[in-house]
């Protein structure tokens, strides 16, 4: 069940005080810490991005595309699946696509962009996007490094956005 804060984004949302969550999440109590809320929102975002990234990397490497084309595919699929992870639950709760998009677009765009940048930089430097096969150990090392880097880069940004009610954990 989605809380009312997700159905109609408030015109002037009250910021979250550190250690006190004003925004409500279906799985957290009203007294959840900002840190826990941030971790939950970042893991949710990472899951969506990771799925899309994996699909893009798999296609790019399987087709023998270069690292830049493969990373472009990973970013494109990361954005699609990242947005889908936030939109689908809101659509299922009864919101129209326009209402759901208005509720998530800014926070998710910023979060996904930061996460994708960090993920692709890490993967590129480890060499995961430069291998000829997904069976190569470096592919998996790069993907693992990308997940850690994406989470680490997006967590402080998500904390900042949640504290200022720019991002709403309403999925």
Automatic annotation (TrEMBL):
Q: Can the keyword Membrane be found in this entry's annotation?
A: yes
Pfam families linked to this entry: DUF4396
Which UniProt keywords are given for this protein, alphabetically ordered? Membrane, Transmembrane, Transmembrane helix
Q: Where is the DUF4396 domain?
A: 38-167
The transmembrane residues are 43-65, 71-91, 103-119, 139-158
Q: Which InterPro entries match?
A: DUF4396 (IPR025509)
* Protein name (record): DUF4396 domain-containing protein
User: Species name for this entry?
Assistant: Luteimonas galliterrae
């Amino acid at each position: 069940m989605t809380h009312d804060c997700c159905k109609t984004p408030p015109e002037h949302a009250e910021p979250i005080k550190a250690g006190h969550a004003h925004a409500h999440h279906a799985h957290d109590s009203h007294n959840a810490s900002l840190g826990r809320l941030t971790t939950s929102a970042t893991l949710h975002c990472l899951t969506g991005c990771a799925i899309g990234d994996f699909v893009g990397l798999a296609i790019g490497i399987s087709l023998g595309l270069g690292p830049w084309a493969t990373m472009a595919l990973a970013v494109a699929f990361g954005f699609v699946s990242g947005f889908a992870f936030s939109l689908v639950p809101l659509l299922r709760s009864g919101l129209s696509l326009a209402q759901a998009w208005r509720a998530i677009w800014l926070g998710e765009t910023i979060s996904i962009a930061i996460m994708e940048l960090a993920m692709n930089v890490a993967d590129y430097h480890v060499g995961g996007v430069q291998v000829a096969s997904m069976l190569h150990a470096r592919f998996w090392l790069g993907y693992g490094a990308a997940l850690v880097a994406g989470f680490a880069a997006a967590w402080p940004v998500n904390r900042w956005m949640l504290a200022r009610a720019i991002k709403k954990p309403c999925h």
